[in-house]
Amino acid sequence: MRQPMNQGNAANPQLEQALEDGAVQLGVELDEQRLHRLMEYLFLLNKWNKAYNLTSIRQMDAMVPLHLLDSLVVHPRVQGVSRLIDVGTGPGLPGMVLAIMNPDLPITLLDSNGKKTRFLFQACTALKLDNVTIVNDRVEAYQPEELFDMIVSRAFASLQDMTHWCKHLLANEGCFLAMKGQFPEAELAAIQDDYRLDLAEAVSIPGVDGERHLLKISPV
Fold first, then answer.
1. What percent of the chain stands above pLDDT 70?
2. CB-based contacts of 203: which residues, under 8 Å, 6+ apart?
3. Residue 177: beta bridge partners?
């Protein structure tokens, strides 16, 4: 049996078990270090949320499925990626979760909200994540030194706005990975002349009701 983490107030066997069980259902393997880091991130998010309103989800037992597991579902789809940006990351969803799960993957977290990027700086420092770059800027103003082969977005904008605002960030042969609720037929129709749908996957998040879809989109 896995030992619960022993790191001050970041010890909650029930939450750990819910996270581990949910990851198993998603087919995502969590070793002890990643499990503990995800829990540390959860406790930091909860602590900062009380003062800075980083997320409307207030209860940690709800954050496990709605934030952590909802982000973990992306993990298998980023394997083989060399540079990734999470646009409109908010408090780091899914980017911080992906950074914890993929410590060798350079990940940029971009958000225009200063409170949220300040939290991200503190969280990266506390978790000793050296694969993360945090950018406090509007997406259309950001000019990276290197382009990205995957742009991830979790409820950031419509597909049309996402592809329009972010296209200058995309490397040749790069793609978008959008996290959506219901299958966005109208949004896809609006971009069909310029982008193709490479993958549409309905996913089920343990403990979360409602539809969820992952869409991989590439320029034609």
1. 95
2. 73, 212, 213, 214
3. 152, 216
